[in-house]
Specification:
The chain is mostly helical. The protein folds into four domains: about 60 residues, lambda repressor-like DNA-binding domains (434 Repressor (Amino-terminal Domain), Orthogonal Bundle), CATH 1.10.260.40; about 180 residues, no CATH class; about 70 residues, no CATH class; about 50 residues. The protein contains 19 helices and four strands. Strands 1-3-2-4 form a four-stranded mixed β-sheet, sandwiched between helices. The radius of gyration is 24 Å and the shape is globular. It starts with 10 loop residues before the first helix and ends with a helix.
Amino acid sequence: MLMEKIHAINPQRILWCCKEHEVSVEQLAKAIGISRATLERTVQGKDALTVNQLQKMADYFNRGLLFFLEHTPVNEVKIHSAQFRTISNQKPELSVKLKTLVERIERQRQVYIGLLENLGGDVAKMWYPDNLDPGIDNIKQVASIVRKWLGLVEGVDFLQLRRAVEDKGIMVFVSNGYNGQWQIARTSPVRGFSLCFEHYPVIAIKKQNTDGPQAFTLMHELAHLLLHRDSFIDDDEDLNRYQGKEKVANELAGHVLVPDNFLYQVDLADFPINDVAAYDNYLKRYSRLWCVSPEVILRRLLDEGKIEKAYYQHYREYKQSIPFVEREGRGSRKYRFKEPVRMFGEPFVRTVLDALHNQQISLAKASTYLDNLKIKDIHKLEEIHAHF
């Protein structure tokens, strides 16, 4: 059966996918391991592909097999969500890999909601503070509301920040550190994105060398969701922009992570104001305590009039002049079974395992949802499930 040729494959859908992924028919044939002649016959409307070959194509394009058997033309409004189209319009130059990641994350969200519903969970959870008016223009007031809503205290780390956001009904993804289907490429300037849905919106964050930049991206995307109620995709430049909606998101992120009562703890009496190379070391204990980079503290000091703009600019120029050094051991897969928790978050993993234990999904399906974990790794993950 698997060797029989499939009838009625829609060649226009193949060509549409090639255009979307910016590959030629020849490149596609090479990528999925079939002959160019076979694929060209298929594109011409002839029955030339087997089930296995079509499945390879479907996997390559991140589509279901049945997608290529539908006779109708592709309706991009139905294929791509409003959230996907929003961020694609914001940055038309997005790579194919990143666009595919957005779609993959959207599907994980659908899986999560479906499993929650089957388990009797709340799939219509309100994810924003009921006392937050998006029209409030006092950032400090908004930040105070958000901090209380999240239950933040001094000394929280990134994991605690993430859990606080997830507990409100917002999915948080962190890209993995190795080259795979859940990675935002290290060479990509994109730091994160948010997908605004009525229920269970999504924040995706690019993995960084340290937790501080990840925490700021998390709060920046949360600011977009809370204040702008729309989807955004942000790169390094956006997280340093101080105009428009990006300015608002940056300011709110800074005030949530470093409120005034934190900032006033910074002892400026001995601050090495004329030695920008010494700033990081001087602010190190504060940045560790508040889970932020020294630059976030400096920006807050600048906004509060505690330091002059010229010193902040000199610091940024100095930091940009330092070559980036990859952290040793980044992307290690020694603890493979923990990766789904790091990438998809504890609520998602917990829900998948609960569905498995309740025999609502098979072990094979659970593996698919958990980044194709091997059975032995799923069992290891089950062992720590009780501690979630």
